[in-house]
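To illustrate the input format used throughout this study, we show a single complete record. The first block contains the structure-token representation of the backbone; no residue identities are included at this stage. The design step must infer an amino acid for every position from geometry alone.
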């Protein structure tokens, strides 16, 4: 059985849940993307997915803070996560941010360089693309309508490649009704932050080794977002042709390529 723990950081300003797994010394921080449900309850599944990192790394999986309101920005998400990392004694971490988590990771690497020794930005962007404005905007509308199943179906269909979506259609069907009114309100607040985000002026402050991972069939942010980000950072870019926006979940070779980047 995969070992993992779930705990929380409590400050005067927020409570943030996180999970840990792995027995290594090097801190590896995972910042997941926008989702209707928190990720820490799925810590065991994530720990199994990231089993290649158990020996050399201590992996930290951070949720957003519990109480999220409209107006909570990407910069504030990054700052709160940085505070949590400091309280846990994390520094010089290898940080991987996926989608919205990648937006946070950019801000964190620019404003708290002591926390980030290496940076991986997966299927993310420095500013909203036309594709993102359309897709995330639709998700916000569905969430406001309160149709959990319709929202989940639309998210699953856009986030995953057609082949992956069809392969796990039964599992997606079982999950499509998961989500409460409170989850929808939280989703709207977090999703709205993506629509106002722009880190382009911060990118020059990122000095740590960086790897960008993207998809040529990214139906959420558009493939150009990853390409433009890698060009701005002048860093290595991995682009997948057969996996969707969630290439960080779909690509079977990605963890091996991450280990090469981390150990270089």
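Output of the design step:
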């Amino acid at each position: 059985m995969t070992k993992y723990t779930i705990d929380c950081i409590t400050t005067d300003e927020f409570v943030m849940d996180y999970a840990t797994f792995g027995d290594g010394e090097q801190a590896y921080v995972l910042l997941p993307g926008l989702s209707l449900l928190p990720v820490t309850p799925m810590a065991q599944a994530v720990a199994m997915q990231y089993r290649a990192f158990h020996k050399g790394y201590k992996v930290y999986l951070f949720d957003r803070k519990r109480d999220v309101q409209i107006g909570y920005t990407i910069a504030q998400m990054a700052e709160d996560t940085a505070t949590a990392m400091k309280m846990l004694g994390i520094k010089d971490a290898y940080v991987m941010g996926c989608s919205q988590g990648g937006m946070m990771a950019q801000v964190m690497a620019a404003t708290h360089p002591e926390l980030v020794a290496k940076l991986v930005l997966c299927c993310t962007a420095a500013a909203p693309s036309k594709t993102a404005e359309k897709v995330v905007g639709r998700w916000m509308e569905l969430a406001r309508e309160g149709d959990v199943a319709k929202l989940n179906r639309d998210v699953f269909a856009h986030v995953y490649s057609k082949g992956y979506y069809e392969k796990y259609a039964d599992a997606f069907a079982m999950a499509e009704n998961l989500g409460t009114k409170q989850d929808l309100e939280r989703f709207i607040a977090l999703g709205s932050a993506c629509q106002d985000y722009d880190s382009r002026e911060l990118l020059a402050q990122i000095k740590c080794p960086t790897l960008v991972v993207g998809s040529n069939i990214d139906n959420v942010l558009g493939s150009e977002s990853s390409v433009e980000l890698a060009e701005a950072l002048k860093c290595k870019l991995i682009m997948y042709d057969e996996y969707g926006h969630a290439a960080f979940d779909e690509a079977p070779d990605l963890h091996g390529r991450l280990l090469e980047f981390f150990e270089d």
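Structural context for interpreting the output: Residues 92 and 158 are 34 Å apart (CA to CA). The radius of gyration is 17 Å.
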